[in-house]
């Protein structure tokens, strides 16, 4: 048994006892290329490095590496690897042709190989490259190029012209191109910087970053994050299951995300930010900002134009909006402050807080409290929750059910109409200065009390009062049901 | 008659080598190595054959060999029977000794840095053996994960699951492509590394799918 086991081990290790040999062969060729002619390279299994020069010729250098059981086989195989260089009227075509690998005693292919190119081309020659299982690096091209790679990184820099770059299962890095750039990647990251032109980028399953693109950014990603910095033109960004971050965009921006966070700052034009199941953060948007989200937290500040938000199941907190806000939410609290212009807020089952609104405020809530400070008028509808208003300088209209109301009018002698209705709770109105109201207060199962001298002009009872405070210039209608009414200083 | 390497296969069919063949072996190291291997495998196979407890094995092997395409038959084609038989025997014995094949779920394939050749582009024989063993173990662990994930992939229609499904299909295609290239270029470190990366990514994707994890 011992002998048998030993033999088996010997057999198993038999292959590994053979030493391997490596052979390297260099291929060099220089081919003239006329103006307007292109260079095409078709390769696999090895890197391609392409650089440029001013001469009208293509300088080809290839290192052919082969590993085999012995030097003869390695050398023989290396000599049979063909670097086909085919000039034509349209340009130069370079292709790698590998011979068939022979099988070993065990049926395996025991030869391995790769070829690495270094090619110098005229800088104005259009370029086409196809490669797989190797990296591609191109620098200095001043013409259009079309590069497709897979299973290896792709680097492209310091160029001009219209560029089309594709890669899969490998990263793409592009820097400094004068002209439009189109990038398509799959399962790899993409990083593009310094494009004087537009960028169109499509990706799946990888992160994408673009910076310093001057004339428009269109990014379509899936299952990957997007980061855009200091770009301009028209921005159109789409992704899913990944975050989108935009810092600095000169122009209009649209972001459509699903299941991802959006963060957008310093956008000079209009912005439209849409997502689901991810927060939206924004600041310093130049013009109109429109947000459509669900199950998201929305927060931000400093919008130069109007702000329109649609959300559900998430809070909305915004401040310093220059041309009014319109917020439609549900099952999420809303907090707005520092609004220049009017504010229209609708939500349910959550608190609404508004302060420092220079225009009219309208709040429609359901089963949620409302707290308002320093607005020019307020129209509030809610139920089953308290309403507290302070420093309201315009007309005041509140409709509540089953919730207390505590409202302070700061109109003073300016006199603005007040209409408040609630039930099953206290209704209290604070008046400042020298108020002047025609009061009509009515309740049931509660009392009516006032700190101000009231000249009764109609009925007077514990639950129904009609009269005037001061000169009686404005109308005050207070209606309660199963709760008291108080008019206090 | 001048004996050449291509004649060795025919020569080995006889019970004893011809004098020309013996003369050739003295001068040709490659044929000498093949001849030595043939002897070792023949001996091992003869000794172990009686222990094999599956009566269907040999007919199956023969059927498989007969079904093999006949194109480009090299000189050692007739040895395939022996080669496959020996490989099957070795595999069977090794599988029967679990200490040789402890496979842990989550094991990741790696290429030992000490086992690559000096210019870092090709593996050595020893490293390749280790890498291929690791790959097999890794594939088994991923297959386990795939089996666990299969009901979720097939029965759930959420957008997230659709994405995972798409990614797994894409990874499988890439793995197949890489393996196909590796078959002809087994010592190429780039290909081996690419394959390891793809397996790693597939394992990670399956884990994310099973744990319901999101990237955000």
Describe this structure in words.
The complex is a heterodimer of chains A (489) and B (216). Chain A is mainly β and 489 residues long. Among the domains of chain A are: 20-145, no CATH class; 386-489, no CATH class. Helix content of chain A is 5%, strand content 56%. Chain A has a 24-stranded mixed β-sheet, with no helix packed on it. The longest helix of chain A has 13 residues, at 2-14. Chain B is mainly alpha-helical. Chain B has helices at 8-12, 19-27, 29-49, 57-67, 80-95, 125-155, 159-183, 189-211. The longest helix of chain B has 31 residues, at 125-155. Chain B is elongated and about 75 Å long. The chains are: A mainly beta (489), B mainly alpha (216). Chains A and B meet through helix 1 and strand 7 of A and helix 3, helix 5, helix 6, helix 7 and helix 8 of B.
Return Rg of chain B in Å.
Answer: 23 Å
Oligomeric state of this protein:
heterodimer
- Give the uncertain stretches of chain A in residue-range form: 1-17
Report the end-to-end length of chain A measured between terminal Cα atoms.
107 Å
> How would you describe the shape of chain A?
rod-shaped
* Count of separate DSSP helical elements of chain A: 2
> What summary fits the major beta sheet of chain A?
24 strands, mixed
Mean pLDDT level of chain A: 92
- Proportion of residues in extended strands of chain A: over 45%
């Amino acid at each position: 048994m011992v002998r048998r086991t030993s033999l088996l081990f010997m057999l198993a290790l038999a292959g590994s006892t053979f030493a391997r040999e490596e052979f390297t062969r260099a291929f060099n060729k220089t081919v003239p290329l006329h103006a307007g002619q292109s260079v095409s390279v078709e390769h696999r299994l090895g890197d391609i490095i392409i650089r440029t020069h001013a001469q009208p010729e293509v300088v080809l250098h290839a290192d052919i590496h082969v590993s085999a059981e012995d030097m003869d086989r390695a050398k023989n195989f290396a000599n049979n690897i063909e670097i086909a260089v085919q000039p034509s009227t349209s340009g130069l075509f370079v292709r790698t042709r590998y011979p068939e690998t022979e099988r070993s005693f065990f049926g395996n292919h025991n030869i391995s190989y790769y070829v690495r190119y270094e090619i110098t081309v005229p800088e104005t020659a259009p370029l086409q490259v196809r490669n797989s299982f190797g990296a591609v690096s191109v620098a200095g091209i001043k013409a259009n190029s079309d590069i497709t790679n897979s299973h290896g990184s792709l680097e492209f820099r310091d160029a001009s012209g219209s560029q089309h770059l594709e890669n899969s299962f490998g990263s793409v890095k592009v820097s400094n191109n004068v002209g439009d750039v189109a990038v398509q990647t799959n399962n790899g990251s993409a990083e593009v910087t310094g494009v004087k032109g537009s960028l169109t980028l499509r990706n799946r399953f990888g992160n994408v970053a673009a910076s310093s693109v001057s004339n428009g950014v269109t990014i379509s990603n899936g299952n990957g994050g997007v980061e855009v910095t200091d770009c301009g033109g028209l921005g159109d960004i789409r992704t899913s299951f990944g975050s989108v971050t935009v810092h600095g965009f000169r122009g209009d921006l649209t972001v459509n995300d699903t299941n991802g966070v959006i963060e957008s700052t310093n956008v000079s034009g209009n912005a439209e930010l849409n997502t689901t199941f991810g927060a939206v953060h924004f600041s310093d948007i130049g013009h109109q900002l429109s947000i459509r989200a669900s199950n998201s937290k929305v927060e931000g500040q400093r919008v130069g134009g109007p702000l329109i938000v649609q959300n559900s199941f998430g809070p909305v907190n915004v401040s310093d909006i220059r041309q009014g806000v319109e917020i439609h939410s549900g099952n999420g609290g809303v907090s707005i402050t520092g609004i220049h212009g009017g504010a229209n807020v609708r939500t349910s089952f959550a608190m609404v807080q508004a302060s420092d609104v220079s225009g009219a405020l309208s709040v429609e809530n359901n089963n949620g409290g409302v707290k308002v400070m320093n607005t020019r008028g307020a129209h509030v509808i809610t139920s089953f929750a308290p309403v507290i208003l302070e420093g309201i300088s315009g007309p005041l209209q509140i409709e509540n059910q089953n919730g207390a109301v505590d409202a302070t009018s700061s109109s003073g002698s300016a006199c603005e109409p007040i209409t408040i209705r609630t039930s099953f709770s206290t209704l209290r109105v604070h008046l400042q200065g020298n108020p002047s109201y025609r009061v009509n207060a009515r309740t049931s199962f509660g009392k009516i009390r006032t700190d101000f001298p009231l000249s009764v002009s109609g009925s007077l009872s514990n639950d129904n009062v009609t009269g005037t405070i001061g000169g009686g210039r404005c109308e005050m209608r207070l209606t309660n049901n199963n709760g008291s009414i108080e008019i206090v200083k | 008659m001048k004996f050449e390497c291509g004649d060795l296969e025919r020569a080995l069919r006889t019970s004893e080598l011809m004098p020309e063949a013996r003369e050739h072996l003295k001068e040709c190291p490659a044929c000498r190595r093949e001849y030595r291997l043939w002897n070792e495998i023949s001996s091992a196979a003869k000794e172990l054959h009686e222990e094999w407890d599956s009566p269907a094995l040999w007919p199956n092997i023969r059927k498989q060999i007969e079904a093999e395409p006949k194109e480009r038959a090299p000189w050692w084609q007739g040895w395939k029977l022996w080669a496959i038989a020996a490989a099957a025997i070795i595999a069977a014995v090794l599988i029967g000794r679990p200490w040789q094949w402890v496979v842990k779920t989550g094991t990741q394939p790696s290429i030992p840095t000490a086992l690559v050749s000096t210019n870092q582009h090709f593996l050595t024989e020893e490293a390749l053996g280790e890498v291929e063993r690791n790959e097999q173990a890794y594939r088994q662990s991923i297959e386990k994960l795939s089996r666990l994930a299969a009901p979720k992939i097939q029965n759930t229609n959420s957008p997230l699951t659709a994405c995972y499904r798409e990614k797994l299909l894409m990874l499988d295609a890439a793995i197949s492509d890489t393996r196909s290239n590796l078959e002809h270029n087994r010592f190429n470190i780039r290909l081996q590394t690419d394959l390891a990366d793809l397996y790693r990514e597939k394992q990670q994707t399956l884990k994310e799918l099973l744990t319901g994890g999101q990237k955000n």
